[in-house]
Amino acid sequence: MLNRTKVLELRVEAEAVAPSNIAIVKYWGKRNTELNLPLNSSLSVSLDSLWVRSKVIFDEGFERDVVTINGNKLSDGEVKDYAGKVLDIFRNFYGRRIYARVESSTNFPSSAGLASSAAGIAALVIASNEALGLNLSKRELSKIARIGSGSACRSLFGGFVKWNKGELENGEDSFCEEIFTPDHWPNLVDVIGIFKEERKKVSSRSGMQSTTLSSSLLKCRLEFVERTFGEVIDSIRTRNAKLFFELTMRHSNSMHAVILDSWPPLNYLNDRSFRVMEWVAEFGRAGYTFDAGPNPHIFTLEEDVKEVTEFLESEGAVKVIISKIGKGPYIIS
Ligand code: ADP
Ligand code: AMP
Ligand code: DP6
Asked: In what residue span(s) does the Mvd1 C-terminal domain sit (predicted)?
């Protein structure tokens, strides 16, 4: 009789929470699609009301990566293009072919049209570093998250976060840093209106590639970002709400202008988005911003949250989420 001893297979796991982020200066366009190297630096705030919790289990017995979000399994293709990119890097660091199971959950409805990928990928990166005991710095981890999904690199930090576009071909200087702490501007609030919408037809990934290849206005937008980046930072440093709101709206408009300038036709806003834009601009004490979808993020000061919320409800918002500036990701022990 053959006496087979089973070789012990490695199994490690860890769990982390990461915040969602909303960009003030938007990322829209890449100079390298493999490494997600952006055409411009961007700036976001991390949100304390929207977070994702991800548990990762690496096990030498697994035959492929499996990812579930709120219990729903992603297709192999979806895994490969996002979380799989991150897991490949960790496998490389580790030096062994070891697959993972990722269980991710959001504290907001996944059908609400709020992007979960940034926070989800950031939480996965933090958890993987912990599980494999790699002790990589936040800066290194932000470069790994960037390769999973660009905007995810900003969710590695709390407060106000700058993603430096970098110049190098290999992306080693394209990482994030916290430029102001979470408590820098305590009465600044993001009021998020959730409207019932179907899933967006064109992902950020393919939309921004289409803009990069086809928009002739993109060059002007990059000049605008370059010219006003320092001003955005100054408005935050000095807590100049009026200027911050104005720049927030102009940067959102600038991104949606080059989206509209793309071919084939592309647009993420709808009639209600334009009504929101008009109301907020007239209101004067708030600033709107939209990502690749019609749900508005309206920045305002605490004393005006009620009025902004009532406006969103009168426009038919099914839910209004009120968020302050949040802290960065953390490990759950
Ligand atoms: P976006 O954030 O650009 O709006 P989605 O939320 O549609 O994009 O997510 C895009 C992809 O990101 C998904 O297909 C999935 O592969 C990956 N993803 C999203 N959320 C998570 C998560 N919580 N954990 C791991 N991967 C995620
Ligand atoms: P300034 O207000 O111009 O002194 O810039 C303050 C901060 O903004 C510094 O950390 C710079 O790195 C950053 N910054 C200024 N201009 C840009 C730009 N065009 N792109 C990216 N970051 C910028
Ligand atoms: C509109 O980070 O989702 O939210 O790098 O291809 O994964 P990939 O794109 P993604 O794009 C986010 C675009 C945005 C603006 C922003 O967050 O800066």
From this structure: 191-313
